[in-house]
Amino acid sequence: HRVETAFPVEEPALIARLREDLDTYLADNCQAWVLQPDGSYIQNQPGEGEERLASQLVLLERLTGKPN
């Protein structure tokens, strides 16, 4: 099941946190899937010389303060 909600976020610190987390998800080049024009998906891959970024691991490290 999936539930989506929308609500205002007015606290500047929370807005900054949400933007930082969203930027992390958008930079994911290991676990993200990209929708193609034909409706299919391909898994995002790091570009040549690009460091791998797995958003869930980055966010977990950010929350726990421990490298994973």
Automatic annotation (TrEMBL):
Matches recorded under InterPro entries: PPK_C_dom2 (IPR025200)
Lineage: superkingdom: Bacteria
Gene3D superfamilies with a match to the protein in the record: Endonuclease Chain A (3.30.870.10)
Domain Polyphosphate kinase C-terminal: 1-56
Pfam families per the UniProt record, alphabetical: PP_kinase_C
SUPFAM superfamilies: Phospholipase D/nuclease
Protein name: Polyphosphate kinase C-terminal domain-containing protein
Organism: Marinobacter nauticus
Species lineage: Bacteria, Pseudomonadati, Pseudomonadota, Gammaproteobacteria, Pseudomonadales
